[in-house]
Amino acid sequence: MEQRIDRIKKQLQSQSYKLTPQREATVRVLLEHEDDHLSAEDVYMLVKEKYPEIGLATVYRTLELLTELKVVDKINFGDGVSRYDLRQEGAAHFHHHLVCLECGAVDEIQEDLLGDVEDEVEKRWNFQIKDHRLTFHGICHRCHSEDPSS
Ligand SMILES: [Zn+2]
Ligand SMILES: [Zn+2]
Ligand SMILES: [Zn+2]
């Protein structure tokens, strides 16, 4: 955790931003909840536990800054809420998501798996791919096993 905070700090510094205590508190919350997909309000509530004086606007601005610096990615699962997701270190592209239609769980696929598709798209549409958002909608393994008819 400390090493990752250190690297994020350097990343900010390289763009001449400082990792202020409030920004650091926000980054810590994101790291502690790495598997969750927190909204700005979720992050705010968690940061507030440690920094009761922090405002939603400050948290929001920090999240926007981290998005700009590609430390986090912003994603929307169709409920109109922007969620913030830490980008895997060194990952060229954003990871994929599996959204369960039954229980609402969001699982992640960290492998890109799209190499062939990306080659095809780049060739056929002469389009240089920088990133992508891929969300699968379906029934997760937990809901599968609870349903005796499937
Ligand atoms: Zn994710
Ligand atoms: Zn990719
Ligand atoms: Zn499910």
UniProtKB/TrEMBL annotation:
<feature type="binding site">
    <location>
        <position position="103"/>
    </location>
    <ligand>
        <name>Zn(2+)</name>
    </ligand>
</feature>
<keyword id="KW-0408">Iron</keyword>
<keyword id="KW-0678">Repressor</keyword>
<keyword id="KW-0238">DNA-binding</keyword>
<dbReference type="GO" id="GO:0003700">
    <property type="term" value="F:DNA-binding transcription factor activity"/>
</dbReference>
<dbReference type="InterPro" id="IPR002481">
    <property type="entry name" value="FUR"/>
</dbReference>
<dbReference type="GO" id="GO:0008270">
    <property type="term" value="F:zinc ion binding"/>
</dbReference>
<keyword id="KW-0862">Zinc</keyword>
<keyword id="KW-0804">Transcription</keyword>
<dbReference type="Pfam" id="PF01475">
    <property type="entry name" value="FUR"/>
</dbReference>
<dbReference type="InterPro" id="IPR043135">
    <property type="entry name" value="Fur_C"/>
</dbReference>
<comment type="similarity">
    <text>Belongs to the Fur family.</text>
</comment>
<protein>
    <submittedName>
        <fullName>Transcriptional repressor</fullName>
    </submittedName>
</protein>
<dbReference type="GO" id="GO:0000976">
    <property type="term" value="F:transcription cis-regulatory region binding"/>
</dbReference>
<feature type="binding site">
    <location>
        <position position="140"/>
    </location>
    <ligand>
        <name>Zn(2+)</name>
    </ligand>
</feature>
<keyword id="KW-0479">Metal-binding</keyword>
<feature type="binding site">
    <location>
        <position position="100"/>
    </location>
    <ligand>
        <name>Zn(2+)</name>
    </ligand>
</feature>
<keyword id="KW-0805">Transcription regulation</keyword>
<dbReference type="GO" id="GO:0045892">
    <property type="term" value="P:negative regulation of DNA-templated transcription"/>
</dbReference>
<dbReference type="GO" id="GO:1900376">
    <property type="term" value="P:regulation of secondary metabolite biosynthetic process"/>
</dbReference>
<dbReference type="InterPro" id="IPR036390">
    <property type="entry name" value="WH_DNA-bd_sf"/>
</dbReference>
<feature type="binding site">
    <location>
        <position position="132"/>
    </location>
    <ligand>
        <name>Fe cation</name>
    </ligand>
</feature>
<feature type="binding site">
    <location>
        <position position="143"/>
    </location>
    <ligand>
        <name>Zn(2+)</name>
    </ligand>
</feature>
<dbReference type="InterPro" id="IPR036388">
    <property type="entry name" value="WH-like_DNA-bd_sf"/>
</dbReference>
